[in-house]
Structure formats: C-alpha cells, structure tokens
Amino acid sequence: MSDPQSLKLAVIGGGPGGYAAAFLAADLGMSVTLIDPEINPGGVCLYRGCIPSKALLHVAKLIEESDQAKNWGVEFAAPKIDLARLCSFKENVVNKLTGGLGILSKQRKVRYVQGRAAFENSTMLRVTKADGSQESLTFDRIVIATGSRPAIVPTLKLDTPRMMDSTGALNLEDIPGSLLVVGGGYIGLELGSVYAALGTRVTVVEMLPGLLPGADRDLVLPLHKRLEKMFEGILLNTTVAAVKDEGNSIRATLKGQDGSEQGKVFDRVLVSVGRKPNSEIPGLEKTQVKVGPKGFIQVNQQLQTDDPAISAIGDVVGEPMLAHKASHEGRVAVEAIAGHKVAFEPNAIPAVVFTDPEVAWCGLTETQAQKENREIKVAKFPWAASGRAVTLDRPDGLTKLIIDPQSERVLGVGIVGAGAGELIAEGVLAIEMAALASDVAMTIHPHPTFSETVMEAAEVFFGTSTHIYRPKRG
Ligand SMILES: Cc1cc2nc3c(=O)[nH]c(=O)nc-3n(C[C@H](O)[C@H](O)[C@H](O)COP(=O)(O)OP(=O)(O)OC[C@H]3O[C@@H](n4cnc5c(N)ncnc54)[C@H](O)[C@@H]3O)c2cc1C
C-alpha cells in the first residue's frame, strides 16, 4: 500500500458521501479533487433533499402547532403565507450550508471542479466544466459518489409543470388548491405534510396496504391517524393508472385493488415513487466496475468496486439511500484507500421520517424478525405515560425496544412521536455498544424528557417500569 500522502484522489459527486470522503482524504494528506456540477459541494441532500425539505417542514410544524395552541388557551390568527419569503428562507438555509462546504473545501485545499466527469479509463477522467471547456485528469484512485435521482414511471410522464418530482415540489412555485401525492414513502409524506400545512388539500395514493412500507405497523399507526386529519385522503392499495393534462388541472385515474377506477382532478401531482442510482456514468464501461441488476454499483465491505483503482459510495451503491449512510461509507472508503483496516459493517443505520409525529427506527425491526423467524422480545412504552409528552400535549407516541431474549441485548429500537428523529440516536448507540436492556434501564435519563421513554421501555422488558402498572400474575 502506497503512502496516503502521495496519493492523488478524485471524488466524483459532491453530495454527503462525496464531500465527506474528499474532506477525510485531505485530512489524511491525500491530494484531492472533488468534481460536481453545482457551484459548491452539497449534492441532492443539501440542494434538493434533506435540507430544504427540513427547512419547510420546520415551518409546517409551526403552522400546525399554532393551530393546536387554541387547546391550550392561546389563539393565533390564521397564518398569512408570504411564499417568496418562505422560499428565500429555504434558499438561504441551502446557500449558508453549501457555501460553508465551499469554504471547508478551500481550507482543506481540496481542488473543487465545477463540472461533470466521464471515465477515459480506470484512472483518467475527462471533466466537462460549467463553461463547456474540457480537462483530462489522471489520478491514483477514484471514488464514485454520483448519488441518485427520482424514479420515473412511464405512465405518469406529462410535459407540464403541474407534474412534479421531489425537486419540483421543493421549488414551491405556488400553493396549489389540491395535490395528488403518488407514493406513501417518506419523501411523499414529508412533502405532502408541507403542502397540507400551507393549505393545500392533499391526497396520497399508495399501492401497498400501508404507508411507509418497511416500517413496523405500530410505529406507522399514530402517524397515519394524524395524517388522516391533515390530508384530504389516504388511498391504500391504489395505483394511478393514468394522468391527463387538462390545461388548468391534471385528471388522474385511480385504480383500486378490485380493479375499479375513478377519475379525480388535481391542481398538481407529485410523483415520489422511489429513487434510481446514477450509475450511467459516461465511460464507466472502460473500467472494470460492475453494475448490478437494480443499477447499483457493486462494492465490497471496503467500498471497493471490481476495479482496483475505483471505490464507490452512497446512493449509487445501494439501500438505504440516506445521507448519513453515504457519509459513513465515504469515510470507510477513504480509510480503506489509506490502508487502514476498516469495513462498512454497521449494526444499525437509523431511518427517520420527519413528519409530525416523526417515525424513526434502527437495527432489527419487528417485521424483519418475524420474516426471519427470529425469536425476540418486544418492550413497548406508550408516550401517554411520559410526563414530557403530556406537558407538550403530544401523547401520540411509542418507544419500543427489540431485545434478544437470551442475551438481553438491544437489537433494534423503534420510536414514533414528536422529536423521534433526535431520540433514535440513543438507540443507535445502544445497539452499536452492544448494550443490554439492563444497561439502558440503569442509565439515569433526565426528567422530564422523551429520552426517559427509552429507559422505561427497557424497564418494561423487566416488568418494572415506574410509570406502567403491570398486575402480578396468579
Ligand atoms: C426530498 C428528499 C428528502 C430527503 N431527505 C433525507 C433526510 O431527511 N435524511 C437523509 O438521510 N436522506 C434524505 N434524502 C436522501 C439523501 O438526499 C441521499 O441519500 C443523499 O443525498 C445521498 O448522498 P450521495 O453522496 O450518495 O449522493 P447525492 O447527494 O445524490 O450527490 C451526488 C452528486 O453527484 C453529482 N453527479 C452525478 N453524476 C456526476 C458526474 N458524472 N460528474 C460529476 N458529478 C456528478 C450529482 O449532480 C450530485 O450533486 C432525501 C432525498 C430527497 C430527494
């Protein structure tokens, strides 16, 4: 293994995977070039994903909470939405963070090239820059971090701005009277919540029998109940068979499980049916990189592809397509290139849905355990028994631990409730540290906080939760 200080490394793609990799490589002394079409690093996450959606969800939450305040004796007037200002708040957030990444690149002496990269061979890239000029560059190692893009359904393709993907929805060009969200995954539910809070009548269509496929049903239930109040409709087991541009609106044909069809008219349609990896990089066929049947680049636990000079990370290598997974992979890939003994082998990758209530989980889920016929014990603490939840008038939550009955190790954590996304980090740490239920139960948690629900869920496992009475048997 050559000295990392002498390595010339290129990173293609400046998302949370790419910039985390580039920055660590520079910290380890490599000579680093980071290539991305945007003016600064950030990728999907910062420009048209995690960050702008969370800025808008923050405002949506405020609107919802100000309405709920009447139950506490405080009544606010109906909100007036200044759309231009709302958008500029969101854009300022994006500019602040991406600008910060630009400064961090310079401070680390990462060469940032605004452009698109194509492979000439395993170690040579041709970069087409923003001004149209081209440059060929040679490296010792290359990291592919080209991310993903919204999946397109051919039957839902219409050439009108009324038809949106997540990027279009985040642009928030107007507040439509009605919106059809196709897909009940996290992106559809988050963006649907934003529009609903702003006053749009939102209908969600999901072809499976439940929202958020992949999450345990007991975690989804409180969210489903709240969304039923916020949204005009949630149609499960339903698909959108066709869409038609009617000038001032879009007519969608909704098809139920029994084959029945109904036509409904919407001002806008958001298609959020998943994402596709960006593995169609020009010239990739000139390398030994292999792409799997679902379009993901194939890598080993060191994030190395079948080409010894090329690693790949983030959305382009597989699920879960999440920013924190991409960043972690980026760091592991670079450490492996530097010759460190590392592997990408997490016990828990947290997933968070930033709706209200939030849904978060990590490690083993109950659904997965059932599928694998794995013996587990589930300990649940309902938030109605949490002092903090009641003070905030948000008892609609649940914290549960999935525990190995023999070793009593915590294998999974699931939470639904306000702020679940922050709380799940404790679950991730418990799993990664191989904590036992007794470790969690014996750890003093601050009162009154939601974090106590994690401790009390562990106490539930032993039948000794302070705030839950369990009658003695026999
Ligand atoms: C609406 C929305 C909300 C989301 N919310 C969350 C969230 O809350 N939490 C979370 O963890 N994840 C969230 N995600 C997912 C998250 O954005 C992705 O998982 C993450 O951005 C993946 O990072 P990445 O580094 O793999 O690639 P990306 O962020 O996709 O970045 C890849 C970059 O590579 C560039 N690129 C592609 N091809 C080339 C080329 N040939 N040459 C040069 N550059 C190239 C692209 O233009 C892009 O800038 C959200 C996504 C969306 C769409």
Keywords:
474 residues, alpha/beta, 7-stranded mixed β-sheet, 5-stranded parallel β-sheet, 13 helices, 22 strands, 32% helix, globular, binds flavin-adenine dinucleotide
What can be said about this structure in brief?
With 474 residues, this protein is an alpha/beta fold. The protein has 13 helices and 22 strands. It has a seven-stranded mixed sheet with strand order 5-4-3-2-1-6-17. It has a five-stranded parallel sheet with strand order 8-15-9-10-11.
Describe the overall structure.
The protein has 474 residues and is an alpha/beta fold. The chain is 32% helix and 24% strand. It has 13 helices and 22 strands. The protein has helices at 16-27, 43-48, 50-68, 83-107, 166-171, 186-198, 217-230, 323-337, 366-371, 387-391, 420-432, 437-442, 452-461, and strands at residues 8-12, 31-36, 111-121, 124-129, 134-138, 141-144, 148-150, 163-164, 178-182, 201-205, 233-235, 239-245, 250-255, 261-266, 268-271, 275-277, 310-312, 351-353, 358-363, 377-382, 398-403, 410-417. The chain has a seven-stranded mixed sheet with strand order 5-4-3-2-1-6-17. The chain has a five-stranded parallel sheet with strand order 8-15-9-10-11. Strands 18-19-22-21-20 form a five-stranded antiparallel sheet, with helices on both faces. Strand 18 and strand 19 (358-363) form a beta hairpin. Helix 1 packs parallel to helix 8 (323-337), helix 3 packs across helix 4 (83-107) and helix 3 packs across helix 6. It is globular. The N and C termini lie far apart (67 Å). The structure holds flavin-adenine dinucleotide (FAD). Flavin-adenine dinucleotide is lined by residues 12-18, 35-38, 43-45, 49-50, 53, 116-117, 145-148, 166, 187, 278, 281, 314-315, 321-324, 326, 354.
